[in-house]
Specification:
alpha/beta
Amino acid sequence: MNGVLPGAPRLRSLRIVCEDFGRLREQRDKGFRVFGDLPCLSDININGICFSQLGIDWINVTKVKFRSLCRDECLELFKRAKRLVECDILVDMSRIIPNYEVTRDEITLPSLKTLRMQLTESVDTTFDTLIIPSLNDLHLQGFLRCRWLQNLLIRSSCQLLSLSLVDIVLDNLEIDSILQKTPRLEILRLSYNFLFFDNLFERLGHTKFIDKSSLDPEMTFLPCLYSLQCDDDQGVHFKFSWRLIPLMFASAAELDSPDSRPLCKLSISAFNPRSIEKGMARQLWELQQHYQLTKRC
């Protein structure tokens, strides 16, 4: 295969997967490239070749899945694929391929709604120029500083509806500061973050009834949240008190209150949870009669 894709003017989806990494290195050394006139191409799924080996037009691409990109390749992708709506990438920060000029100019992705990004090493200031105003679904995994995420939310002025943070070490102050910037959040997943969840559970309990007229951010904390997932089934870092769980939810008599938070789904996966406090088993059972609660311990 020489990589040429002639006569495919209507091709919309391109998937290339190379599982033979020995052959992959051989092809790279020979200068293997995929290129062609593909004006309708909108969906790309790549695993096994470099970004620089794709000699295609990115102007109409709206969906990308890439394993893996180095830092500079990732920035170049964002510069070229301005119409991205959905992006799922693994960024290998240890790889350095000096093929592209890295600038400090702002990169705006006006249509990007879903971003899934996994980082292999701590992110520096490389992505500080990203602006994603339409972003509403964000999944981040790996080495990430809290301040980077805060700045992204501030720069973009986006309204996140779904946020997933996996394998990112956070303390209670950091997660609080992030959640204060996501007032329309509906779905939250926190996994393997070394958090003590009592602080979050207590805040949700204190604010389960929302005072929409209040200017106090404490009284308008996550007013739209309806689904919460907390995971730590790989270690013993997940700490929470069972007694706080019922306090996060409105009682059966309060379910129809327009001021109550719509939280109705809770999933907890814990490797070594604390024992359920005396009398809590019945309360949790009663909650399950009204809400979609799951636990895997």
